[in-house]
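Figure 2 data, in text form.
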Amino acid sequence: MFSKMYYFVLTIMCDFFFGNVLGNTLLINTNEIHIEYPIDKNAFHNNAKWITETNCFSPSEKYINCGPLKLNFVIKKKMSAEIFLNFHETLIYISRKPRKMIKLKITFEETYIILNYNERNNIFKYNAHKMNEELKSFLNNIDYRINFKIIKIQNSKLDNDISIINDTVYDEGTKDQLRKLHYLSLWNHVEEELVPSYFPTLPRTTLKDFINNSTMYKSSIEFAITRAIKIMKNRTMKYAILLISYAFEAIRISLSLEPYRYQSIENLERLDDALIQLTGNDILSKGYLDFVYVQYKQNAMCILRAMVYKIVKSFLTPEEMEGYSNDLNENNCKQHNDDEKPILPQYLLDKVLNGFPKPHDENEFQNIPVNLRDVMEKLHKINTLIKTEYKYIFKIKFINEKEMYAEIYMRYVSILIIEC
């Protein structure tokens, strides 16, 4: 019987934008492989999934399927890895005939990875500089649409006293991000922060341990770095709350705008710059500029109150914001008795700051003194801490194989093949 094939060229006359997540992350830990699926369900990708084939006369076979890829993994003891996997298709193929599968057996040895294709072993040594380039070249010869990239490989769990700059093999992009993170002056003050477990069977751990052993906590290294940046962002905004609150109290008690404004401007700018560099968050920018150029005490206090309300709201749930709305109403600063009220009620300072910043004594800063001398003493401490922690801030943007496609718009042609 003859078969006919009809080709329809579908040209999409519009720009197609690829989302932030365009593939699958495989988190490999000893004999377990956890698949982290793309967040954007409409993104242009093939979902990876586990397939188990049962046969009457032979043992069942379990493998990972992604498009036409059939991947069998052999993992040596105490080996963990993170792999980015996708099969990019612009060809829509509808046929009664089974699809031709690309079979790969992947073995992780202690110092190299083996890719077996067509019964032939191909060895690639663990090397951050050449490994992925060599893998890409090899796989392109099989099918250019295969996207297989090693993000991280390690042989054993790292102790909690090990720096995030260590012997673990990372791809070049990830290693660069970790290097930037490590050399931030802020890193020394957050690396021992506890992060929650995202799986009930796994314990809470320090941020440094979470990054070093991310695959063992069933998290991608990108997610771990993102958590680190979020912790730094929250720490920065809490410092802003402290600095603004103490500057406000000094102005309120002394009935004078200077020298307290001058003493606060430099570090407000430092915190604003840190937030922008780390996350692109400009929550402080407008208030900071208004505070720089304000001329009257009452107006300055109004600006500071509006700034701190906005920051505090970012730590609250919608339900909490509704419940605390009377104490976070920006119209409060327009009232005539504004200079008689503290910037925030004590319960909100306790809720948001809660002993911040460690390792200082609990409640050392969140309980604001009532006399000017004590306020000024603590304001000086806050300014000193900010200058120390925010000496070196670099912009960390995590760009990897997935996000590369999010940077561009693509015009593409799809070919629909129907075989009858």
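Caption note: The longest strand covers residues 146-154.
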